[in-house]
Structures are given as C-alpha cells and as structure tokens.
C-alpha cells in the first residue's frame, strides 16, 4: 500500500491491514529484529511489532537506517 501523503492514522490503519502471520509460523517466545530503510511515521514498524507481540513474540527490536524529517 502506498503511504506517501497519508496521515499517521491512515498509515497505521493501512499497515495493520497489510500484514498477517502465516499459519504455522513459530512466533511465541522468539525474539525479532525488524529492519527498515527509512522511518517516517513509524506506523509500519509499530504495526508489525504489535502483531508479533500479540502472537507471543518475546521481544521485538527495530533497526532503522534513516528518519524522514518534516
């Protein structure tokens, strides 16, 4: 989903609807590192982290290479 020009709330909604965990994936008790090239609103990594934690992830860390400046 294209997020350019979307508000933070729109981005959060789009991201939440864009990602699902495939059946049979082992999430519970595992540690995850999300890597993003550029963070703008944080909606994508926030949605993914929430999804992973909701499904039992032990921890979710985030690495970002650049942050967009308004």
Find the count of extended strands (DSSP E, 2+ residues). Answer: 2
Oligomer: single chain
Question: What fraction of the residues are assigned to beta strands by DSSP?
Answer: 25-35%
Q: Rough shape?
A: globular
* Stretches with pLDDT under 50, minimum 5 residues: none
- Going across the major beta sheet, what is the strand order? 1-2
The SSE order reads HEHE
What structural class do you assign from the helix and strand content? alpha+beta
* CA distance, first residue to last residue: 21 Å
Instruction: Indicate the percent of residues in helices.
Output: 25-40%
Largest sheet: 2 strands, parallel
Mean of residue pLDDT values: 85
Q: Return Rg in Å.
A: 13 Å
Number of helices: 2
Structural account:
The protein has 70 residues and is of the alpha+beta class. The chain is built from 2 helices and 2 strands, in the order αβαβ. It has helices at 8-18, 43-54, and strands at 31-39, 59-67. A two-stranded parallel ribbon has the order 1-2. Helix 1 packs across helix 2 (43-54). The longest helix is centred in the C-terminal third of the chain and has 12 residues, at 43-54. The protein starts with 7 loop residues before the first helix and ends with a strand.
Topology:
Blueprint: H1 8-18, E1 31-39, H2 43-54, E2 59-67
Parallel strand pairs: 1-2
Summarize the structure.
The protein is α+β, with helices and mostly antiparallel strands and 70 residues long.
């Amino acid at each position: 989903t294209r997020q350019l020009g979307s508000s933070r709330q729109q981005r959060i909604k789009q991201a939440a609807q864009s990602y699902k965990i495939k059946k049979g994936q082992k999430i519970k008790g595992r540690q995850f590192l999300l890597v993003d090239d550029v963070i703008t609103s944080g909606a994508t990594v926030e949605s993914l982290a929430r999804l992973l934690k909701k499904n039992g992830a032990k921890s979710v860390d985030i690495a970002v290479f650049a942050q967009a400046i308004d």
